[in-house]
Write a structure and sequence with these properties.
ABC_transp_permease, transport, globular, ABC transporter involved in vitamin B12 uptake, BtuC, mainly alpha, two-stranded antiparallel sheet, single chain, 74% helix
């Protein structure tokens, strides 16, 4: 009798755990259903494409910091990196690379600007990783400091002004930047294709490469990972480098869509990205998370934001609702951790 009761408890616990793991899918379907009933034309193809295009920005950032959070880290500088990289791209297109001793300005093509900006984003992430690993600075403090530094550097680059009209000049051979944000490929915006390509690359790294397994091992038990021969510091530096690269790509896409760059672009974007990652099932304690979950989490946050705008909800209430969503996501994450622990203990008792 007792054995049957234990089995029933385990089954109910497993059902609850399954529902918690499926929370992002459930939330997505509920939100889609709610807005489809309350907003006319919400699920129209044109509206969906525009929403997914908006979602792609948050998705780039969220995908970038998924590995960071899996290692039990955090990166608050990705929004500032997005803004700074956008400013660098805007400066190179509008002002060129000025060589004062020679009195000339070189205007690089888009094929040079984009890779250069991505490298700069990666270097910012690498600096974060080096400070965190070599000088043992807490990720929260380190990335909070670099967030202010990078944001200030973006302001200094233009004196707080905007770089407008980034279509380029045919005579200078630097046109085509605006196509990244406004162009279409096979009926879908290029930004959406880039989002899915990035998700595929990150997912492949997580599932198929040793690096991905090392990331999970570090998040699960850093000391054990180090004793098993994993170069923990090197992996962490690369994790933050990937976050910087993804932030740079997001900065390029945003700047291209606006055809202008402003130093304040990307402010608070890191909060939406963290919310998407946590909502997608990645544990803030580290060791658990999926790229698919992060992508769906980005869709939940993005559709919620656009749906509230289409309903005419005040921006102030939107901030309140987003804050509530973040808190609920963290609470559910803690519940999942406890239920997984109890399920593991219950399985051990059942086997014994």
């Amino acid at each position: 009798m007792n054995k049957n009761n234990n089995n029933n408890v385990l089954r109910s616990g497993n059902l609850g755990l399954i529902l918690l793991k499926m929370r992002t899918f459930i939330a997505l379907f509920i939100i889609l259903g709610f807005f489809s009933l309350t907003v006319d034309g919400f699920l129209a193809p044109t509206s969906l494409i525009i929403m997914i295009k908006h979602i792609s920005i948050n998705a780039f950032l969220a995908l970038g910091i998924t590995f960071v959070i899996i290692t039990a880290g955090i990166d608050l500088s990705i929004g500032a990196t997005l803004g700074f990289c956008g400013m660098v791209a805007g400066y190179l297109i509008s002002h060129g690379l000025v060589i004062e001793p020679l009195g000339i300005a070189i205007f690089p093509s888009v094929w040079v600007v984009v890779p250069l900006v991505v490298v700069i984003g990666g270097l910012i992430g690498a600096v974060n990783g080096i400070i965190i690993t070599r000088y043992k600075v807490a990720p929260f403090i380190c990335t909070l400091g670099t967030m202010y530094i990078i944001r200030g550097a973006a302001m200094l680059l233009s004196g707080g002004e905007t770089f407008p009209g980034l279509q380029g000049n045919p005579e200078l051979g630097n046109t085509g930047f605006d196509a990244i944000g406004a162009g279409y490929l096979f009926g879908l915006p290029i930004a959406i294709w880039l989002m899915f390509i990035m998700a595929g690359i990150i997912a492949y790294i997580a599932r198929k490469l040793p690096f991905g397994r090392h990331v999970y091992a570090i998040g699960d038990n850093e000391k054990a990972a180090e004793l098993s021969g994993i170069k923990v510091n090197d992996v962490k530096v690369w994790v933050y480098t990937i976050a910087g690269i993804c932030a740079a790509i997001a900065g390029i896409v945003v700047t291209s869509q606006l055809v202008a760059s402003h130093p304040a672009t990307g402010t608070t974007f890191e909060m939406n990205a963290i919310a998407a990652v946590v909502l997608g099932g990645t544990s803030l304690a580290g060791g658990r998370g999926t790229v698919t979950g992060t992508l769906i989490g980005a869709f939940v946050i993005g559709i919620l934001a656009d749906g509230l705008v289409m309903m005419g909800v005040s921006e102030f209430w939107q901030m309140v609702i987003k804050g509530v969503v973040i808190i609920i996501a963290v609470i559910i994450d803690q519940m999942q951790n406890k239920m997984q622990y109890k399920a593991a203990i219950g399985s051990q008792k059942a086997l014994s």
